Structures are given as C-alpha cells and as structure tokens.
Amino acid sequence: MLGLLRRSGLPLPLPQFEVVSRGRVVARLDFAYPGLKVGIETHGYRWHGGYERWRRDISRENRLKRMGWLILVFTWDDVVGDARRVVLEISDALTQRASKPGVGKPLPELTDIRSNRGEEGVPVG
C-alpha cells in the first residue's frame, strides 16, 4: 500500500498512526491523514480472519467513526489487482473531507506531511 501511495502522487499518509482518546490508544491505523481524519486499513485474512477478530475490527471501526474518522479498508487483492480504484477512492475521500467545513485542514496543507517524513524516520520516495 505504501508503494502504491508513493507512486500515486497523493500526499503521503502517516504510517502506524495511533488514535488517542482520553489518554488511551483507541486504534493504530495502518495509514492516516490525521488532519482530515481519514484512515486507511489494509486487511489480510491472516490477521483479520475469524469470528473474534472480525467482531473486534467492527467494534474498533465503529468507535473511530463515532470520533469522526472515515476509515477506508482495502485487501491485498485490491491493492495489487485494482490499484487504480484504490487510489481514486483515497483521492476522493481526501478531496471530500478537505472540502467539508470544520472537518480538517485543507488538502494542500497535507503536503506538509510529505516534508516531515524524514523527521518521522520514514523514508520518502
């Protein structure tokens, strides 16, 4: 997913972003645009299969939604076999969120995330 996002030309998200509420970690998102409260999860069956994990994932996602987050979920097949759709869905979500008053920072400010990547210890490009 990170490789796809790098090639897409979209602003890079923060990886392994912890969403905190009342001093407690609610979730660690695979990727996040925190200014817009857009999270991206890549679900593989190995880690997200089975009834108990499925139930916890739904509960966690509902809590994030109540906190105002938009969570996009993609599978390996999505990323590898339908990359164009994945990029379009992420782009649409960022654009829609940026245009809603009071949701977050405008989309152009997300380029700051890209310039801060080196400080976060995550290589760019």
What do you see in this structure?
This protein has 6 helices and 4 strands. Helices cover about 50% and strands about 25% of the residues. Strands 1-2-3-4 form a 4-stranded mixed beta sheet, sandwiched between helices. It starts with a helix and ends in a 5-residue tail after the last helix. Mean pLDDT is about 80; it is low at about 105-125. A hairpin with a 2-residue loop joins strand 1 and strand 2. The longest helix is centred in the last third of the chain and has 17 residues, at about 85-100. It has about 120 residues and is α+β, with helices and mostly antiparallel strands. The chain has a single domain, classed as VSR Endonuclease (Endonuclease, Chain A, 3-Layer(aba) Sandwich).
Strand and helix order? HEEEHHEHHH
- Give me the CATH architecture, please: 3-Layer(aba) Sandwich
Mean pLDDT: 80
Largest sheet: 4 strands, mixed
Structural class: alpha+beta
Principal-axes shape call: globular
Instruction: Specify Rg, calculated over alpha carbons.
Output: 14 Å
Strand numbers in spatial order across the main sheet: 1-2-3-4
CATH superfamily assignment?
VSR Endonuclease
In short:
This protein has 125 residues and is α+β, with helices and mostly antiparallel strands. Helices cover 48% and strands 24% of the residues. The protein contains six helices and four strands; from the N terminus they run H-E-E-E-H-H-E-H-H-H.
